[in-house]
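Many introductory courses stop at the sequence. We go one step further.
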Amino acid sequence: GLYAWPGAVVLAQYLWFHRAALPGTRVLEIGAGVGLPGLVAAKCGAEVTLSDSEELPQCLENCRRSCLMNNLPHVPVLGLTWGRLSPELLSLAPVDIILGSDVFFDPKDFENILTTVYYLMEKNPHAQFWTTYQVRSADWSIEALLCKWKLKNIHVPLQSFNADKEHLAGSSLPGRHTIEMMIISLANSDGT
């Protein structure tokens, strides 16, 4: 949570590409880390709340510093731990968009992430979860969990928002980075 991963850069590009639709939207970034996507949304006029695990105070402090460095001292930062009902989660204001860049990092967290996202979408049925992730293993998939939690996803091609350039999500990390984006929402009663 102390590094801007390539997925954050791609999600920030998506927000910038759709910046005209952001003023007045209510945005929650989960697993914000340095908060790049949420900060871009706030700069574009969205009402943003950044969150990271309540068990990682250094990440929460980093979010606060990022807000101050970007002249966004009014952006709230909350401790929300995936899969855990907390007073902060229960009292969240309505949201239109949930952001998550590279939250699908460790498979042991996948269900907790989707549990939290599902809870938020049940409270906000129109909400969407905009997420980017780095493909780390062909064996990792959230498809079964999406079905279990009655969620559907739409793959968003990177070229559709000019994010298919190597320099955009460039990183000094070893290896090749394949970034994917999807929009997750509640499935209809028939699963579509």
